[in-house]
Design brief:
The protein is about 35% helix and about 10% strand. The protein is α/β, with parallel strands linked by helices. Strands 1, 2, 3, 4, 5, 6, 7, 8 and 9 form a 9-stranded mixed sheet that branches. A hairpin with a 7-residue loop joins strand 6 and strand 7. The protein is globular, with a radius of gyration of 30 Å.
Amino acid sequence: MREGATRAAVLGIVVLMVALAGPSLDRSSPLPEVSPSAAAGAYFDYLVIILLENHGICEILTSCGGSANYLTSLANAYGYASQYHYCGVNPSLPNYLCLTGGSDFGCPGYDGDPQSNGCTSDAWNATNIVDRLEAASLTWKAYMEDMPSNCYGSNSGLYAVRHDPFVYYKDIATNPTRCARVVPSGSGAGVLLSDLGSISTASNYMWFTPNLCNDMHDCGVGTADGYLVNIVPEILNSNVFKTQNAALFVTFDEDHGGAVLGQWAGRGMKTGFVSSSPYTHFSLLSTIEANWNLAPLTTNDQNAPNMAEFFSGQPGGGNYQPPTAFPLALVLLGGFGIFLAVIVVLLARRLRGTKSDRPPRRPREPEEPGGETDFESDL
């Protein structure tokens, strides 16, 4: 009975460890030709960033328990980082500032309007990614779904100002020329999609924030996934993405301790590519800076690893380890359990071997009247 229980324990642990593994692909595609009129970058000439809300990677990818079928198919077709983390702070605002200013500016725990407290006042006067882009003669534009008007600086309906980091910087929010580039996105990202119709209207750096429902903040994963299945294919099939070296990056602002999805798509990407290299929001900034040879904003992005390995022709093979919904502690416990199970099996075999070395006991003979039995004589 003890041996059967041991075997069942070993089998159960082995099944658990096998479930943690997953298949992966390694395919690559050639880099597209770069238009001479584009601002040539090391990895891309045009970039679209889509920011979503408040979900961990295994709430999204169906391979580890998520329910976003479209985003999963997009990740599998191109590439994603299974260990991409936000800035390590909550709630939303400090992460949006990390992505555009290289710092949370001391705003953990704060989600207020521009210039509404000490940390947002620090951000107000800070150098930001737009400063770096314009200094390098690169173009940019930010598209905000349901924003009432350009550079709108407070909440309105499904528009959350905390999801629009550009209005938190003074040299954008008070500059009419720059404010003209922080615009309402139109229905279904219509303005963004229209701009992607030509290199004369597309910017080198494009940011898109969906509204509070379509970014998964207020509505479920299925609602936002259904929204993106209509928009993302149009982005990838746009004139700019089909004829230029353009890249799409989709990520989430935050979770509560775990990794978030960080995925790339576009013609210049490796395909079927999965990496568990450690990245953060600062890594996206680092990638943008490395791509266009921009000076870092802070030591955070300066020291963050960039994500060059996702692009065709760049070193890095990925290690193809899909994320798991199981925490690391449970995985380690499973490995320790296997070790203990092996020890138990070896001890059980040793005990059986010891018993087999004993001489067999003589069978009990019929008791004779007045005489001793074998059992009694053994005593």
